[in-house]
Amino acid sequence: MKIFLIEDDAAIFETISERFNSWDLDVIGPSDFQKIMDTFIEAKPHLVIIDIQLPAFDGFHWCREIRSVSKVPIIFLSSRDHPMDMVMAMQMGADDFIQKPFHMEVLLAKVQAILRRTYDYVDEQPEISRWNSATVDYAKGTVRLGNRTCDLTKNELFILRVLLQHVDQVVSRDELMRKLWDDERFVNDNTLSVNVNRLRVKLEEIGLENVIITKKGLGYIAVNVME
């Protein structure tokens, strides 16, 4: 697997590269921080790790640029600790946000979990399913109702897939987090809330309203309201 690490601190870059290489993860970085997209397009990485504070343009800018052409998993790795930084990252389509200083084993575990669910899990399940008269295309990461379509991030799609495996049944937040991040020790509860809320908004925009219900203290239910 190829990891594109957008980090201007040479010491951090080398430390991550050495640790990841020992797990057969090939780490590459930009040679020019003003031409990050050129490197991204040429390298075709399986996952991107990006800092917020970078030369020329910040990480949010490059996240937007990458998301405009790719659904590759993105992890923010930053010393900035304001809650809005995390919210902004999630809203832009990032898959996770890790603060510096960080534990290398936590970063590695999160990267491995995201790579597993992104590139392995899809092979175990049907590529297309029907729900509330909508077509959920797991390969394309889209939900289509009539002539309206919404694009989902990897996290949003994964959450929807888990909920649809238990239609009209409660799926607890704990179960969702275990499945999403593989290990509860590496879970940020706010991240799940942001992803579920963002998923709801996208579904509502194409006409799927009130299809993901919150059961206070229990979890979420994907309900059939049209079929």
TrEMBL record:
Subcellular location as annotated: Cytoplasm
Gene Ontology molecular function: phosphorelay response regulator activity; transcription cis-regulatory region binding
Known DNA-binding region: 126-224
Domain of life from the UniProt record: Bacteria
Broad class of the protein's primary localization: cytoplasm
One Pfam assignment: Trans_reg_C
Chain positions with 4-aspartylphosphate modification: 51
Single GO biological process annotation from the record: regulation of DNA-templated transcription
Keywords annotated in UniProt: Cytoplasm, DNA-binding, Phosphoprotein, Transcription, Transcription regulation, Two-component regulatory system
Alphabetized SMART domains for the sequence: REC, Trans_reg_C
Gene3D superfamilies: 3.40.50.2300, 6.10.250.690, Winged helix-like DNA-binding domain superfamily/Winged helix DNA-binding domain
Protein name: Response regulator transcription factor
